[in-house]
Amino acid sequence: MTAEVSFTIDTPRGSRSTSVTYRREGVGEPLLLLHGIGHHLQAWDPVFDLLAADRDVIAVDLPGFGASPGLPDGVSYDLAGVVPVLGALCEALGIDRPHVAGNSLGGLLALELGRAGLVRSVTALSPAGFWTPPERQYAFAVLRTMRQVAMALPLPVIERLSRTAAGRTALTSTIYARPGRRSPQAVVAETLALCEAPGFAQTLAAGQSVLVTDDVPGLPVTVAWGSKDRLLLRRQGVRAKHAIPGARLVRLPGCGHVPMNDDPALVTRVILDGSRPVGGAVRTAARLG
Predict the structure, then answer these.
(1) Count of CB atoms situated within 10 Å of the CB of 180
(2) What is the pLDDT of residues 128-171, one digit of tens each?
(3) In a 10 Å sphere around its CB, with 0-12 CB exposed, 13-18 middle and 19+ buried, how is residue 166 labelled?
(4) CA distances for 180 relative to 99, 171, 200, 203, angstroms
(5) Exposed site from 60, 63, 280, 281, fewest CB < 10 Å?
(6) Model pTM above 0.85
(7) Is 147 helix (H, G, I), strand (E, B) or coil?
């Protein structure tokens, strides 16, 4: 079950109210989950219950995605605009410096939350921002095409395609290495989320200037990359390791850009391992080759 929390943020036009949809369950230290561009909190469904056995898990629809409304007028969708909103969200939920795990855009935001000192550990799954300019142009072109195709398909066609493994592959193979494992209902819901996201265009535009080169000092950081990521190629993980020398860099064999669905057990282990106290981790994932 999802809920909604409303809170006040500072904007160039004064204090404004905004709200975020989230799902929260489990026990233990808090763990914030952030999805990628055009997705929604249900991206974490394959691992949510597994994580909730050991963590107080909070999966959110980022502002302008899923069921969360867009940001108030005057608030940008760049890192400087979104990170304070996530900090205010944590305060509204009574979460003090949670662990954070993010995928793609969510991974980029997770790393920035770490730099801001708002979290106690970071796990970034195929995070955005470690691209070359041509790699960024390629990824953005793919994302725009995915959205255009999704918006052009009538709902009955999306529903019909989702009923077969071949149809699910046609709709989602860019982000999943094993799209046939995704349920028909999930494919329909995430296709509609991609169509309807009011923050998509502004988030993509803000990403044009993003290039991550700064370290995330003083925190445990894990960067994990799917070996079959077709959107952000795994060599970007090597660049992430150069930028964040203390990070643990791991490989997710057989996983695509959104690995939670491709190998839930492995992704769960990587996140739990990355969110344990320093020195207490049992390193279960293979190193990135």
Answers:
(1) 13
(2) 999 999 999 999 999 999 999 999 999 999 999 999 999 999 99
(3) exposed
(4) 31, 10, 26, 29
(5) 280
(6) yes
(7) helix
